[in-house]
Design brief:
Layout (H helix, E strand, L loop, with lengths): L2 E2 L2 H15 L6 H11 L9 E7 L5 E2 L5 E9 L2 E2 L3 E9 L6 E7 L3 E7 L5 E11 L2 E11 L14 H13 L6 E4 L8 E9 L6 E9 L5 E6 L12 H5 L3 E5 L10 H9 L17 H18 L3 E11 L1 H12 L5 E5 L29 H8 L3 H5 L6 E5 L8 H8 L6 E5 L9 H20 L1
Parallel strand pairs: 1-11, 3-10, 14-15, 14-16, 16-17, 17-18, 18-19
Antiparallel strand pairs: 2-4, 4-5, 4-8, 6-7, 6-9, 9-10, 11-12, 12-13, 13-15
């Protein structure tokens, strides 16, 4: 492989840009702005707040326990009197069991939420109207979450299907092309765009690889992406600590282009990619994605700077799913850190409970035997059963995108050492403290083990 301004890589990039956007040039500022728009973030502060919490401090109940939700509406941190609210309570993402309204004469109220008679999550949604503006709040009670079992079936030839996929992948040359990105390099780290041949001839995998400049052997971290279409900047900060990082895209397109290109692709050619060819297990879109994660590991192991052993994978949402999938597929991974994983227990809606993103069977009109059968080979639950390595996991109970029932279906299927940090009130986002805990967990294992 060449580590220079590869002429072939430049040609590939220029051809792609000409096809999709004429003579657009990479604009780093716009790229960063796009990433900020597409990243799930903590909700912004509002003048009026609707605070809801179950009446158990940890938000956890046993099956059959009666749940009560404490509700308070404040403005300027003072309770608002005589505000009207509408509320509904029911299993997450399912029809409400209770719908009613109330007036908070003193600014607070306790709502009886009922119970569940099987493991799952009971969600309370509030809409309060104050000064002509509507404000929303949500809280979700866990009912014996450690007992949640997956609905997804495990195919009898699951292992054979993916072993064949990996064998086929191994016959495809990597044909690596590295392009130095000098504007992203630091005093300690070189940054490249990696262009790698993926699961068949002509299919490409792109990512940003950050390699410490100081001669030596280093551990590595594979960063897998959340859903969507975007560019990537790479994890230079971790590389500056002495960890090779590879942040990949999944769509087979360069990851250093102008933000407008990704916006256009996301609205057109790649709109709804998570459903492409769902009726055929060999052509489903995520086959190239899952095998692409294995190919990314092939690339890391080809790097002369890699220590050949200490490798972790991490990501959130779709990236959380890909972290578990990669660990279940490839024994070369030693550690994983996953936030609010998607693609878990996809068949949940078929059995009248919440299924994981992208909630592919929520609409009965979109259900077919072929799609159900294909989903079994891509459900994170079934990869979780094959995870054998230590893992760090974190999510919240209020997630409307990746419902906690689906995530616990996967988590409870993992028999390897695991650590779960729950931030009950979070939705499809994480606190900085969660991210820092994950980083520390990974650094201790990658760098700590290397120093032993």
């Amino acid at each position: 492989m060449k580590r220079a301004f590869s002429q072939s890589a430049k040609a590939d990039l220029n051809r792609f840009i000409q096809v999709f956007c004429g003579n657009l040039r990479v604009n780093i500022c716009l790229l960063v702005f796009l990433i900020s728009l597409n990243t799930q973030a903590q909700p912004s502060e509002k003048l009026v707040k609707v605070a809801i919490a179950p009446d158990h401090a940890d938000w956890v109940y046993n099956i059959g326990d009666q749940v009560k939700f404490k509700v308070m509406v404040t403005c300027h941190n003072e309770m608002v009197q005589n505000v009207k609210i509408r509320y509904e309570v029911g299993p997450e993402l399912m029809n409400a069991m209770i719908k009613d309204s109330a007036v908070l004469k003193e600014g607070s109220i306790i709502i009886p939420g009922g119970t569940l008679h099987e493991p799952g999550f009971l969600r309370c949604k509030i809409v309060a109207e104050y000064d002509g503006i509507k404000y929303e709040g949500v809280a979700t009670a866990a009912m014996s979450p450690e007992l949640i079992k997956p609905t997804a079936e495990y195919p009898g030839d699951f292992i054979q299907f993916w072993e064949k996929g990996k064998r086929d992948l191994a016959t495809i040359p990597m044909d690596v092309k590295l392009t130095l990105l000098p504007e992203r390099c630091t005093e300690l780290t070189n940054v490249y765009q990696a262009n790698i041949q993926n699961y068949r001839i002509g299919s490409r995998l792109y990512g940003i690889v950050c390699i410490p400049k100081k001669p030596g052997k280093y551990p590595a971290l594979l960063k897998v992406p959340g859903a969507g279409v975007r560019g990537y900047s790479g994890d230079v900060a971790m590389a500056d600590l002495g960890i090779i990082t590879l942040e990949i895209g999944i769509h087979g397109i360069p990851v250093t282009m102008d933000a407008g290109v990704y916006n256009d692709l996301g609205r057109a050619a790649l709109d709804g990619y998570m459903f492409f060819n769902l009726d055929d297990r060999d052509k489903y879109y995520y086959k190239r994605v899952y095998l692409g994660c294995v190919r990314a590991i092939d690339f890391i192991f080809s790097l002369p700077e890699f220590d050949g052993s200490n490798l972790a994978v991490t990501g959130g949402s779709q990236g959380g799913a890909l972290s578990i999938v990669t660990a279940g597929l490839d024994k070369r991974v030693k550690y994983l850190a996953a936030f609010y994983p998607a693609l878990c227990d996809l068949s949940g809606f078929l059995l009248n409970r919440a299924g994981g993103w992208p909630q592919m069977f929520r609409d009965p009109k979109e259900v077919s035997k072929e799609k159900i059968e294909t989903s079994k080979y891509y459900d994170v639950v079934n990869f979780a059963k094959n995870v054998k390595i230590p893992g760090f996991y974190s999510w919240g109970y209020n997630d409307p995108v990746c419902p906690p029932t689906s995530m616990f279906s996967a988590y409870n299927s993992i028999m390897a050492p695991k650590e779960l940090i729950i931030m009950q009130e979070t939705g499809h986002w994480s606190y900085p403290e969660q991210n820092e805990k994950s980083k520390q967990w990974l650094v201790r294992r990658l760098i700590g083990n290397q120093q032993k």
